[in-house]
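haha ok so turns out i had the wrong file open the whole time. this is the CORRECT one, sorry everyone. sequence first:
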Amino acid sequence: MALALAEAARGLGRTAPNPPVGCLIVRGREVVGCGFHPKAGEPHAEVFALREAGVRARGATAYVTLEPCSHHGRTPPCAEALIAAGVARVVVAALDPNPRVSGQGVRRLRDAGIDVALGVLEDLATRQQAGFRSLITRGRPWVVAKYAMTLDGKVAAAGEGNGSVSSEAARARVMGWRNELDAIAVGSGTVLADDPALTVRGVDGGRNPRPVVFDRTGRLPPGARALRPETVLVTAPTTHAAACEDSGMTVVRADDLPGALGALGSLNLSSLLLEGGPTLLSAFFAAGLVDEVRVFLAPKLLGAGLSPLTTPLRAMSDARALEDVTVEPLGPDVLVTGYLSPIPRL
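then structure:
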């Protein structure tokens, strides 16, 4: 199943609104077929793995990171493909939260006499599928807040632009995240201070996430690098944004952040890397819309400067604790990750 999850990871950031899925066909100790879902509209992982296995799939075991689909969508149901290929056993990491599938794919396999095992590496699989699960169950992307700060809790010196708190190793990790998530979001303050391109660099076979820029007052200059035809501009309902629409950008007019996230979900964006400055970060945290946190701690002391969050709590008892926390040394920095929301299951 770990190998199947590695196959599924090849589709991260490319499959929305579908999930990333990997599949292995195994006879004895030999992998005779493997595949992953490359993007929506193309065959699912099981189909690619069965094609590679050919007649060797009969009597074999299929390892699948998500319950095989049982309905006709853009492609035929994978449960039927596994049955037709004559596999003897199917090992599934996680059930599909889509009500059109959930439990029905497993039921169809068992009705055909196939032995089915559930829940193998389920936690790892659901984490990998967090964006898909959020889109299916909540209608909005999974939000990952990323920032880097000094040991005294500063993200930048006051008024500073184009500065970097973290190391080259940390920045390379962020490029990998950009490659794997559907969209990347910043606020107008970050665009004015840094003029970021919001692209992927240094990743073989990488692709750029869709830029999302929050600008409620329409103060961004038209020449900003983040403003291009594929960009989604999120603004207030009354803000004039005709020039952006004329240039091909998608303009979302929303009263609040929940409405904005719902609109991003309707654009089939299942995951959002929040890279904004303190204003945007604080707004998302205050609204309870951050699902996952990834923070780099740099061995630096800045003194006066900008804190990542601008809305202080009154007491330590009001602080929100992260779940499933991991701590990883990365070059001179330390990466701390954790979850504020449970990953939707069913």
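The chain is about 25% helix and 25% strand.
again sry for the mixup
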